[in-house]
Amino acid sequence: MTSRIAFLDEAVAGYVAAHTTAPTELEQRLIDETQELARAGMQIGHPQAQFMTMLTAVLRPRLVVEIGTFTGYSTLVVAKALAPDATLIACDVSTEWTSIGRRYWEEAGVADRIDLRLGPAADTLAALDPETTVDLAFVDADKPGYIGYFEQLVPLLAPRGVILVDNVLWDGQVVDAADQSRDTVALRAFNAHVLADARVDVALLPVGDGLSMITLAEPAGAELRS
Predict the structure, then answer these.
(1) Cβ atoms of 78 and 48 closer than 8 Å
(2) Could you tell me what percent of the chain has a pLDDT over 90?
């Protein structure tokens, strides 16, 4: 099991992992295989995966969009929580990494719910029908692209849809003014951009490496949409 909560005290992060529903045997095998890769740090931790599983079960989305699939752990847990006739569009540029995920999706019996689209995610989003309704999105890809992905997703978001955006605390580096690296600067800009956008509400959660949960803002005084 992995926690991926690097900015927490190690003992606290371990406690979080130990008190979260454990991965299934299949999920643990995918976690373990991914941990052998040089880029293993790109994989989400299992507490975040469990949060995403439970959120998917509550939202019951018909269409999910994932930007950044890697070896398919997040794809797997979300797809398992979907209704059989729901669809998850998984966007990635790597055949090598996603080929690992494909094996586990097949074994879990959820491959038919996953529409893997290889190529730049911005192009995949641009090719969607403008009338497409996205119920849940997960963004975990190139950090300088985050604002662009957000801007493409918001017009497609269902009234009670959710966009989850990963790595928004970046191991705590977002608060280190001395860190002016490209990804850190991009994440600060993204966090500020979302907060300033009157179309949405955002909760930045200390889950995983920082997870922003974004929904469409309700107009002042409006009744809850049915």
Answers:
(1) no
(2) 89
